[in-house]
C-alpha cells in the first residue's frame, strides 16, 4: 500500500500544476493516469495545435505546454503511475483507499480528480456483435503481432495506426484495409506506401466502405461491409482491427458516490471539494456556476484544492500563505536556496 | 435567430430558437437536447457532437473546413451527410435547418 498526502488522478495540465502546488506547500503527492504518457488531452488530442490563451504565454502547442509544466515540476520528486486506471475509491476511517486496475493500492486523505472528460478508451466498432469477439478476434490495439501470421485480417480506419498496421501486417498476413472515404489522414509517406502495396496486390483496399455485420462461431469467420451506394461485400476475416482513435469515458468515476451533472462533478468554489470530504475535482471535469473549460481555470482550481489538502494531510499544522518571491521555505523546496 | 430542428434517434422532435453566432452544438447542449455529448467543448477534437444534416440542407450550409472530415472518421456510424455540429455556426441563413442525432456518439 502506497501512502501519500494527496493522490492526483489525471496527468493533464491541471493535474500537473496541481502537483506543483501541492509540493510547493510541502505535501507529498503521486499521480495516476490511464494514458501511457503525461499531458492528457494536450498530448492526446492536440499536441501540434497552438494554444493562445495561457496567461503570459502568447502561443504554445499542447506538447510545448506539457513540456513546460513537466519542467516546472523538476525541483520536486513526484511519482507517476502511468497506464493505470483508478477503479475503486473507498473510505477507511480518515483515509481514502484507492485501487487501480493493475492492483496498486493507495491510502491518502486527499484524492484530487483532474480527469478531464474521463479516461481515454479506444472507440469501438458500431456493430454491436463485435463485443462477442472482442480481445479474441476483434482488437482495438495490437499487443502481439505474431497471432496474425498467415491469417486474413480486416483493418478499419484512415489514420496512422490503421495505415502502419496495414503496411506491417501485409508482410505476413492477407490484409483487407477498409476506410469510409478515399482520403487517408495518416502521414503522406505511409499513405503512399499503402497505395503501392495495394497496387502490388499485397493489401486489398476497400474505400467508402464500412462494417455492417460480423459472422463466426466463437472465432470470427467473416465480416460484411457496405459502401455509400449500398453495395455489400462479404470478406473472409480471421481477425478485425479497428483504429478509430480514442474517446473519453467517465468510467468508474461514475460509481464513487459523487454528485454528477452530465459528465462533470459538482464542486464548491472554495476548496473545489465534491460532496465527499477529501475528494476534490479540478479542471474540465468539475462543474460550478460560471465554470469555464479553460486550462487557466484548471490552474486556479488546482491551487485552491492543494491548500484544502493541507488541512487534511497536516491536521495539527497551520497553513501559512507565502509567495515564491520572498519565502525562504518555498525557495528551499524549489531548490533555489540551501 | 434561427429555428433549428433536432430529431433524436427515437424520432422525438426538438424545435429550438438558437441565437445567431452560437453553434448548432451549443443550441442543443444549452437546451438539453439529448444525444449530443460535445466532450471537447467545441474544439473539433472529439467527434461526439456528430449529426446528420437533412439532404436538402447539406449542400446549402458552409462546407467542412480542414480537419472536420478527419474527425468524422472517428464518429459513430458516419454517413455522407455527417457533420460535426460544433462547426455549424447559426445565422439567419440556417433558419429551418433540420439535423438528425445518431443513436450514439461513441
Give me the side-by-side strand order of the main sheet of chain B. Answer: 2-1-5-3-4
What is the count of helical runs of chain B?
A: 3
User: How far from one another are the termini of chain B?
Assistant: 31 Å
The pLDDT mean of chain B sits at 93
Q: What's the average pLDDT of chain A?
A: 94
Question: Care to count the β-strands of chain B?
Answer: 5
Report on this model:
The complex is a heterodimer of chains A (338) and B (106). In chain A, strands 6-3-2-10-23 form a five-stranded parallel β-sheet, with helices on one face. A five-stranded parallel β-sheet of chain A has the order 12-19-13-14-15. A four-stranded mixed β-sheet of chain A has the order 1-9-8-7, with no helix packed on it. Chain A has two domains: 2-121 and 247-333, FAD/NAD(P)-binding domain (3-Layer(bba) Sandwich), CATH 3.50.50; 124-244, FAD/NAD(P)-binding domain, CATH 3.50.50. Chain A is α/β, with parallel strands linked by helices. In chain A, a hairpin with an 8-residue loop joins strand 4 and strand 5 (60-61). Chain A starts with a strand and ends in a 5-residue tail after the last helix. The radius of gyration of chain A is 24 Å and the shape is elongated. Chain A is built from eight helices and 24 strands. Chain B is an alpha+beta fold and 106 residues long. Chain B has a single domain, classed as Roll (Ubiquitin-like (UB roll)), CATH 3.10.20.30. Helices cover 15% and strands 21% of the residues of chain B. Chain B is built from three helices and five strands; from the N terminus they run ββαβααββ. Chain B has helices spanning 24-30, 55-58, 68-72; strands at residues 2-7, 13-18, 50-53, 82-84, 98-100. In chain B, a hairpin with a 5-residue loop joins strand 1 and strand 2. Chain B is globular. In chain B, 40% of the residues are buried. The model of chain B has no long low-confidence stretch (mean pLDDT 93). Chain A binds chain B through residues 41, 45-46, 117, 123-124, 126, 157-159, 179-181, 183, 185, 210, 228, 244-245, 247-249, 263, 284, 293, and chain B through 37, 39-41, 43, 45-48, 69-70, 73-74, 76-80, 104, 106.
Amino acid at each position: 500500500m502506497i501512502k501519500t498526502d494527496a493522490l492526483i488522478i489525471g496527468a493533464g495540465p491541471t493535474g500537473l500544476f496541481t502537483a506543483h502546488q501541492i509540493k510547493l506547500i510541502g505535501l507529498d503527492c503521486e499521480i495516476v493516469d490511464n494514458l501511457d504518457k503525461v499531458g492528457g488531452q494536450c498530448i492526446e488530442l492536440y499536441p501540434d495545435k497552438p494554444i493562445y490563451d495561457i496567461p503570459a504565454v502568447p502561443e504554445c502547442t499542447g506538447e510545448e505546454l506539457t513540456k513546460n509544466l513537466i519542467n516546472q515540476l523538476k525541483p520536486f520528486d513526484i511519482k507517476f503511475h502511468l497506464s493505470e486506471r483508478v477503479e475503486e475509491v473507498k473510505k477507511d476511517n480518515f483515509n481514502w483507499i484507492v485501487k487501480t486496475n493493475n492492483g496498486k493500492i493507495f491510502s491518502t486523505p486527499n484524492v484530487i480528480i483532474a480527469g478531464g472528460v474521463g479516461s481515454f478508451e479506444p472507440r469501438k466498432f458500431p456493430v454491436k456483435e463485435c463485443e462477442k469477439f472482442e480481445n479474441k478476434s476483434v482488437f482495438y490495439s495490437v499487443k502481439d503481432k505474431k497471432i496474425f501470421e498467415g491469417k486474413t485480417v480486416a483493418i478499419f480506419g484512415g489514420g496512422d495506426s490503421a495505415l502502419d498496421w496495414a503496411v506491417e501486417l501485409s508482410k505476413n498476413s492477407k490484409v483487407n484495409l477498409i476506410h469510409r472515404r478515399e482520403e487517408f489522414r495518416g502521414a503522406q509517406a505511409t499513405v503512399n506506401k499503402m497505395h503501392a502495396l495495394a497496387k502490388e496486390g499485397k493489401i486489398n483496399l476497400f474505400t467508402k466502405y464500412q462494417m455492417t455485420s460480423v459472422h463466426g462461431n466463437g472465432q470470427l469467420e467473416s465480416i460484411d461491409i457496405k459502401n455509400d451506394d449500398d453495395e455489400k461485400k462479404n470478406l473472409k476475416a480471421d481477425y478485425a482491427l479497428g483504429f478509430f482513435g480514442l474517446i473519453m469515458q467517465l468510467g468508474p468515476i461514475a460509481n464513487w458516490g459523487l454528485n454528477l451533472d452530465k459528465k462533470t462533478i459538482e464542486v464548491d468554489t472554495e476548496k473545489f471539494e465534491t460532496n465527499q470530504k477529501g475528494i476534490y475535482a479540478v479542471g474540465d471535469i468539475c462543474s460550478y456556476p460560471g465554470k469555464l473549460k479553460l486550462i487557466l481555470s484548471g490552474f486556479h482550481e488546482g491551487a485552491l484544492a492543494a491548500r484544502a489538502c493541507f488541512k487534511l494531510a497536516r491536521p495539527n499544522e497551520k497553513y501559512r500563505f507565502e509567495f515564491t518571491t520572498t519565502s525562504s521555505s518555498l525557495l528551499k523546496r524549489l531548490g533555489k536556496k540551501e | 435567430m434561427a429555428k433549428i430542428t433536432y430529431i433524436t434517434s427515437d424520432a422525438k422532435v426538438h424545435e429550438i430558437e438558437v441565437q445567431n453566432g452560437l453553434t448548432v452544438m451549443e443550441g442543443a447542449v444549452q437546451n438539453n437536447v439529448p444525444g449530443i455529448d460535445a466532450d471537447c467543448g467545441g474544439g473539433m477534437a472529439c467527434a461526439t457532437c456528430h449529426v446528420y444534416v437533412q439532404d436538402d440542407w447539406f449542400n446549402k450550409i458552409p462546407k467542412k473546413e480542414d480537419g472536420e472530415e478527419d474527425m468524422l472518421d472517428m464518429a459513430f456510424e458516419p454517413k455522407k451527410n455527417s457533420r460535426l455540429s460544433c462547426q455549424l455556426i447559426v445565422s439567419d441563413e440556417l433558419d429551418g435547418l433540420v439535423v438528425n442525432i445518431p443513436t450514439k456518439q461513441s
